[in-house]
Design brief:
CATH topology of the largest domain: Endonuclease III, domain 1
Structural class: mainly alpha
Number of strands: 0
Largest sheet: none
Mean pLDDT: 94
Distance between the termini: 28 Å
Number of helices: 12
Strand content: under 5%
CATH class of the largest domain: Mainly Alpha
Shape: elongated
Length: 220
């Protein structure tokens, strides 16, 4: 595991390269982020951002979504994949938000997880981006993969274990934005299929790169 000074260096380096550590999903209202995140499951944020303007224009309030016909919502979210389950969850969650939470997205993990279609990743995103709770870790695929390569975790692929291990080592006030920056870095440089290690600003701190470099040196 990393020394605390190395962890701070990683945090600061990413902050310099990606000063805006924000979610790439576009939204105006809290519940729009909640539903956009549900749509982003096994779909790209870019695709979600293409379809949500029409969805939220047709259903401009939480109440209108709660009253929506699931079949019509399916038409708007069809291109996101798993559209039937997603549309059903959006309408059911809207109904629950109106009925049990006064039309407000809740600010606790327990309440968020009670909503249809909401898991820890989505709940953490809301707690971090909307409510700015410290210590939030959004363990998406980029975060899980790059944290393991860097040596911030033990390389686990389990989102829950990644969340626990990153919570233990990251400064609480930095963790939410740090996770967003890992996503940006994963898309731009440390890509899953072809990481651009020579261009990576995190090479000095990356366990994976150091092992690769050492292996090449020994091979010579």
């Amino acid at each position: 595991m990393k020394h605390p000074d190395q962890i701070i260096a990683i945090v600061d380096t990413l902050k310099e390269i990606y000063p805006d550590g924000i979610c790439s999903l576009v939204y105006e209202k809290d519940y729009e982020l909640l539903f956009a995140t549900r749509l982003a499951a096994q779909c790209t944020d870019e695709r979600v951002n293409q379809i949500t303007p029409a969805l939220f224009s047709r259903f401009p309030t939480l109440e209108s979504l709660a009253e929506a016909d699931v079949g019509e919502v399916e038409e708007y979210v069809h291109s996101c994949g798993f559209f039937r389950a997603k549309a059903k969850d959006i309408v059911a969650a809207s109904q629950m938000l109106v009925r049990e939470f006064g039309g407000k997205v809740p600010d606790t993990m327990e309440d968020l997880l009670s909503l249809p279609g909401v898991g820890r990743k989505t709940a953490n995103l809301i707690l971090g981006d909307v409510y700015r709770h410290p210590g939030v870790v959004i363990a998406d695929t980029h975060c899980i993969r790059i944290a393991g390569l860097l040596g911030l975790t033990d390389g686990t692929k389990d989102p829950g274990k990644t969340e626990t291990q990153l919570r233990a080592c990251l400064p609480p006030e930095e963790s939410n934005d740090f996770c967003h920056r890992l996503v940006l870095h994963g898309r731009a440089v440390c890509r899953a299929r072809k990481p651009d290690c020579p261009s990576c600003c995190l090479r000095p701190f990356c366990d994976h790169y150091q092992k690769e470099a050492l292996g090449e040196a020994e091979a010579e």
